[in-house]
Amino acid sequence: MGATLAVGGGTMAGPPEFVFTQATTLSAPLPCPDSFKEGRLLGTLPLSGRGAFEHSLGTMLGEGLDARLATDLSTLTPETLLTPSDRFFVRTSAPAGLDERRPWTIRVHGLVRNALNLRLDSLASLVAPMGIHLMECAGNNNPANFGLMSAASWGGIPLRRLIERAHPLPQATRVLVSGLDAAPGRSHRSQPGASWIFSLAEIERWGPFLATEMNGAPLARVHGAPVRLLVPRW
């Protein structure tokens, strides 16, 4: 199995794939100011409304691209803001039939001087603590719980480290990251396909990384094992 990073164009070869390309400039969202920085917590109120997860918070529903797990945010306290991995929200799980026992590779190609095809286990020395990051699904709009949001401590490989190894050509301006998201059969609630395009400047600004660890342990299958892209503050 594999992933690809391509400069200039590329095809999906498995988990994250990187393709260096030329493209027009897209503006990235600016960080939002923290309007609660000087605030004081007065108390909490229950969320209102009814939703699909009303009676199943913390329970996995479905499988593969149709898997969902909503986190019960009412259990959070100022001392327990990190979400245990088994309760971290799930928007989609691993495709059915994915063979994690096969060697996992990351392919880097395109507008580069040094195309790479790297086994994930050969990159273990590059894995480093990447800090605590909050993740939220773009569709986290259930008024009953807003449960598609969780925070965890992550470890992984900074994307720029792999880019540096590939030595992008001067005309390379963007990176296409593609991941394995193919599934047999038809998904009822998800559109297959997982890829993002970043400018080299955005990669420096946001510090994306290939996560391999979550809360001090290897990623679980439902959270993208053995490797997933994570873009802080994106």
Structure described in brief:
This protein has 234 residues and is mainly beta. The protein is built from two helices and eleven strands, in the order ββββββαββαβββ. The protein has helices spanning 159-166, 200-206; strands at residues 2-7, 17-21, 105-110, 116-119, 128-136, 149-158, 174-178, 195-199, 209-214, 217-218, 228-230.
Radius of gyration: 19 Å
Low-confidence stretches: 9-15, 23-28
Number of helices: 2
Alpha-carbon distance between the termini? Answer: 27 Å
Report the sheet with the most strands, covering strand number, pairing sense and barrel closure: 6 strands, mixed
Instruction: Write down the overall geometry.
Output: globular
> Which structural class should the secondary elements be placed in?
mainly beta
Strand content: 25-35%
Secondary structure: helix percent:
under 10%
SSE pattern, N- to C-terminal: EEEEEEHEEHEEE
Task: Give a count of the beta strands, DSSP E runs of length 2 or more.
Answer: 11
- Mean pLDDT across the residues is 82
* Oligomeric composition of the shown chains: single chain
